[in-house]
């Protein structure tokens, strides 16, 4: 959140790694142990995704069953992270709207998440064709991104009242079910 606050106040281009590190109480060297770029310090970590997707079992005997397990894992992760401070969520989305460098870094993060999910699907369903797996991975990441964007807009419209909006995990489950309903 340190990087988000600084970037909102001054922009990512005008903010240095030394400033972010100092405000966070770490050295610049320590900063680079955790982040490849200063922009990546404003983004969520992929570590929770690695952990939750690592738990997806390759013992499921069908691709729909595997995708249901992936959806359960992602919805569970969304549910855990919904406890995020609404103000922090608002600040992050404001930053994405105004800072091109952070938006580009977020795009790279989404590509990495898609690759991670694709690797999970390949590991768990080696019999499935590559295009089907790639589409399934891309679809889930696109839905994940759309859910957070929708939740942020609904939260803004509700004046920040988290109790007045549908949980992102519920929205995610409904959204991944849409193609099956069509």
Automatic annotation (TrEMBL):
Cross-referenced Gene3D superfamilies: Tetracycline Repressor, domain 2
HTH tetR-type domain residues: 1-53
Keyword Transcription regulation recorded: yes
The UniProt record lists the keyword Lyase: no
InterPro entries linked: Homeodomain-like_sf, HTH-type_TetR-like_transc_reg, HTH_TetR
Keywords (A to Z) from UniProt: DNA-binding, Transcription, Transcription regulation
DNA-binding region coordinates: 16-35
Alphabetized GO MF terms: DNA-binding transcription factor activity; transcription cis-regulatory region binding
Protein's UniProt name: TetR family transcriptional regulator
Organism: Corynebacterium maris DSM 45190
């Amino acid at each position: 959140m340190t990087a988000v606050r600084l970037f909102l106040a001054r922009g990512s281009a005008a903010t240095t790694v030394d400033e972010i590190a100092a405000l966070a109480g770490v050295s610049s060297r320590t900063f680079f142990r955790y982040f490849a770029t200063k922009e990546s310090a404003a983004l969520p970590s992929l570590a929770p995704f690695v952990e939750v997707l690592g738990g997806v079992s390759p013992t499921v005997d069908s691709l729909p069953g595997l995708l249901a397990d992936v959806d359960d894992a992602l919805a569970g992760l969304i549910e855990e992270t919904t406890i995020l401070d609404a103000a922090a969520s608002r600040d992050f989305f404001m930053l994405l709207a105004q800072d091109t460098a952070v938006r580009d870094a977020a795009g790279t993060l989404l590509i990495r998440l898609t690759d991670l999910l694709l690797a999970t699907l390949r590991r768990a369903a080696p019999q499935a064709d590559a295009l089907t797996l790639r589409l399934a991975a891309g679809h889930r990441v696109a839905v994940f991104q759309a859910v957070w964007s929708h939740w942020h807009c609904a939260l803004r419209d509700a004046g920040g009242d988290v109790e007045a909006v549908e949980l992102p995990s519920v929205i995610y489950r409904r959204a991944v079910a849409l193609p099956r309903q069509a």
